[in-house]
Amino acid sequence: MTEPDLTPSRPVYDGKLGELYAIYLRHLILMVLTLGWSRFWGRTRLRRYLWNHLAVLGDRFEYRGRGLELLIGFLLAVVMLAAWAAAMWLVWIQVFHEKPFASFGLFDLFSLSVALIGFPLAYVGHYAGLRYRLSRTRWRGIRCAMAGSAWRYGASAMRSSCLPRFSPLNSRASVAGAFSSPSCTSTRSLKRPSFIQREMAAVASAARGR
Question: What's the angle, vertex CA 193, arms to CA 187 and CA 197, rounded to 5?
Answer without folding.
Answer: 95
